[in-house]
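Re-run with default settings, no changes from the original entry. Doing this only to confirm the output is reproducible before filing.
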Amino acid sequence: MDSRTDSAGRTRKRRCAQCGHAFSTVERVAPDGLGVKKRDGRIEPFSRAKLTKGITRAAHLYALAPADVNAFVDRVVQMLQPGAPGLPISSTEIGRLVLQELQDSRIVTDVARIRYALVFLGQSARSSGFHALRDFLQWLEDVYGPPEIETPPQTPWQVAKRDGRVELFQPSKLERSVRIASKGRGSEQEVRGRVTHIVAEVRNELHGQALVTTHQIAAEVAKLLLRSDPMAYLRYVSVMKRYHSINDFWADALVLEPRANDHPTG
């Protein structure tokens, strides 16, 4: 009776030849039959699994439920319409659709969307995208408005804890942990000097990073303790690495043993 094409596909109005009942059908190109044109010119079959994987990676470690990921993928798949039958869809168009659908005013979705954009738009081979940090900052402002925070007064500024909490970086906590690991490993003056040196070096290594993790801090401390005193190092890493068995102590100590003669302290 009639047909029209829109974003939903090709809609046809029909009438049953036997009963005269009117009804409509919607025709879409099946995604499984679509080809995807990659940036290097290759064409490969469309894969829902790859699309899901990309969004899942962007939402990694964030509370984006699998049902939400599937809903995003469903909406993208519904809009995958080639310009003409048999023609592939560009991977760039798919990425654009993902960014379009990853927006529902939730903080977790915003984070996933920005992470996806950093990968999708942050490739140097692209003619448009993030070629420099200023491009990313401009995109952030265009999409989300001006920043709501001031430039951090110092770095490191905040620390992301293992349980997900974020707190201000406190040098006093760092000093305390290094002092505990170094207790009795030399005179009080030697220990104090080691603590001061390590804290200064850690802050210097992490300078320029506003948000750091406890893992980053621990890695820098461990590296410096290893150079100055293997015993203090073992005290520190047995807690930071969360040793689970005697073999954990054996493994690190056996590797360190050849260096022990270089550190006669204690």
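The mean pLDDT is 87. The two ends are 95 Å apart (CA to CA).
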